[in-house]
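[Q] Does anyone have a clean structure-token version of this?
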Amino acid sequence: MSTDVQPPGEADEIASEAAATAAPEVIADSLGEYIKIWWSRVRSGDSGALPVLLGLVAIVIYFQVRSSLFLSAGNLVNLMTQAAWIVLLGMAEVFVLLLGEIDLAAAQRAVRAAAVASETGCGSAAANTNGAGESAAAAELGCPGIITS
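[A] Here you go.
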């Protein structure tokens, strides 16, 4: 940010641009202001996580209407138990992405290994074979391994 003095019109324009990119919780002084800023962003096309949350609510409502036992404690525990390995893989991938070591091939390798394991019964060998094939392709083409995966 520069320390140059700017004309009032230009300073207002820069301030409005900064307000448009700042998080609503930073520039809002009240809950009403926060909702107003958030709604203006949604109307301008920046929906954020809103579609995901609305989809999740729609799915929960659908399954609850189909079976009144969907939101029971036993079923929620069962759902969490069954989804634990998927959540663990997802969290691991998010940590990799956040640290900047971006490699989206981990999920692809897991799916390939699971498919081969379901057909042959040897999951670890399938994962090793896939990794070796990708390394050989990367060496042959002279490009990073992430491109060949």
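[Q] Thanks! Anything notable?
[A] The longest helix spans residues 73-99.
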